[in-house]
Amino acid sequence: MTATDNTQASSTTVPADLLNLLDSFPDPKILLDRQYRIIAANAAYRREFDSGQPVEGLFCYALSHHYDKPCDQAGETCPLRGAMESGEPNRVLHVHHTSSGREHVEVEVVPVKDDAGAAIYYMETMHSLRRAREGNGDRILVGYSRPFNRMLELAKRVAARESSVLLLGESGTGKELVAQAIHDMSPRASAPFVALECSGLTETLFESEMFGYEKGAFTGAVGSKVGLVEAVRGGTLFLDEVGDIPMSLQVKLLRLMEAGTYRRIGGVEPLRADFRLVAATHRDLAAMVQDGTFRQDLYFRINVFPIQLPPLRERAEDIPMLVETLLSRLETGRRVTLSDEAMSLLMRHDFPGNVRELRNILERALIMLDGNVIQLQHLYLDTMKSAKQENPAAGSFDEIAPLENLEMRYLAWATEHFQGDRKTLAERLGISERTLYRKLRNFDSIPPEIK
Ligand SMILES: Nc1ncnc2c1ncn2[C@@H]1O[C@H](COP(=O)(O)OP(=O)(O)OP(=O)(O)O)[C@@H](O)[C@H]1O
Question: Any idea which fold 3-128 has?
Fold first, then answer.
């Protein structure tokens, strides 16, 4: 079979041996010129990404991003531009439009040089992250916004290494899910992922959980117990809320990290630890080091590769997709959607509790829902505290909403913010106290605590 049988090339003449080489790789690869034009694609590429149309002759930015200009001119990092400028390989994580929809794809561009060392083509290799996250639907990370993608790129990069990772972010941003994804994408993926929630652990509990114990090690130790460090052997140990570990325990963790050995409580034999550490916290560990509440040596030990998880309010464009995913996780039997007004309210909420809060809001809505469309009145938002700090009746409007809904939102805001009693509020609203009562009672979407 000739090279052109296997690899489709554009009219640009690419040497047959290069096309053969391209086709021999098991990974999806395309060949690009300096004008961002695809000049060849290998068989693996067609197997994985093919939409039935030849890609040769298309611009990579048009195909993968639906842009009309190169990625670097559209505010993205462009690995082709990076490789052209440096003459070196360049790797990024991009969100691509593929035949399976939008996907996170790791893209690496390598210059192909002639005998004189000048780059003549650029070879792009693509790895879809889809494969790394197949298996358990509940563990799939949803998000295509730039802040989320940047975070995922760091996670993907560090996954392949042994370095300790510190995940920083507000509660509910998905730190445990990202820790799990790092494990799934790492060479340790076939070994266990073990998580320990560190807040509230006493010294004894921490030690027995982490290191296990021998029979008779203390009163009540009727049998021996395998600790997490032993159970995780070869895998990834996730220490959640590592900032909550008291000083007395921090030294034990440090010793384990430094020596790489430990003993079961009551045991004499030193055992070898073999795990990769991923820790997470919502606290400012650097400030804790300054205050003297977190050991500096432990801080440096775990803070090798910090990754900041963006709060949901900084990636509002991910909300519709998260809503869809979370609803399908919560409600497997029927297909539930959100009305436009309900979605727009969520998009304006600032989610102090992040994705977990969104999940709770949807779970509550499903309890109240009789049909299949979640409306404004099904959304019990803490909102009424956050996004609703502003007076909903005074803001600028970008949608036509039923007056009844507006009245409901205004009353919710007024009830929460008015300092006086119900009688005075009714007077100020120009209605009788009884009418106010009736309206509030009718609006089951107003949280009970502010009725
Ligand atoms: N990007 C995401 N895609 C899908 N689900 C997500 C995402 N981020 C978080 N979740 C979901 O939100 C919930 C909270 O996530 P997780 O427990 O990982 O957050 P966390 O940052 O570890 O929270 P905490 O700091 O309170 O422990 C989980 O149900 C998780 O499945």
Answer: Beta-Lactamase (3.30.450)
Domains in the chain: boundaries: 3-128, 138-308, 313-450
Fold of 313-450: Helicase, Ruva Protein; domain 3 (1.10.8)
Q: Is 76 helix (H, G, I), strand (E, B) or coil?
A: coil
Residues with CB under 6 A from ligand 1: 141-143, 169, 171-177, 240, 282, 322, 325, 355-356, 359
Instruction: Pull the structure tokens for residue 344.
Output: 């727009």
Query: What ipTM goes with this model?
Result: 0.96
Distance, in Å, from the CA atom of 338 to the CA atom of 347, rounded to the nearest integer, reads 12
Q: Whose CA is nearest to atom 29 of ligand 1?
A: 356
Higher pLDDT, 342 or 408: 342
Each residue of 195-236: pLDDT tens digit?
Answer: 999 888 788 888 888 999 888 777 777 778 889 999 999 999
Distance 231 CA to ligand 1 centre (A): 24
104 C-alpha to ligand 1 centroid (Å): 19
Give me 179's structure tokens. 């820790």
Q: How confident is the model at residue 307 (pLDDT cuts 50, 70, 90)?
A: very high
Ligand 1 centroid–CA 176 distance in Å is 6
Calpha distance 106→103 (Å, rounded): 10
Q: pTM higher than 0.95 for the full model?
A: no
Q: Do domains 3-128 and 138-308 have the same CATH topology?
A: no
Which listed CATH number (1.10.1370.40, 3.90.1150.200, 2.40.30.20, 3.40.50.300) goes with 138-308?
Answer: 3.40.50.300
Report how far Cα 153 is from the mean position of its chain's Cα atoms.
Answer: 10
Q: Measuring CA to CA, which residue among 358, 347, 341, 283 is closest to residue 314?
A: 347
Measured distance CA(444)–CA(436) in Å, rounded? 14
Residue 9 has pLDDT above 60, yes or no: no
pLDDT at 388 over 90: no
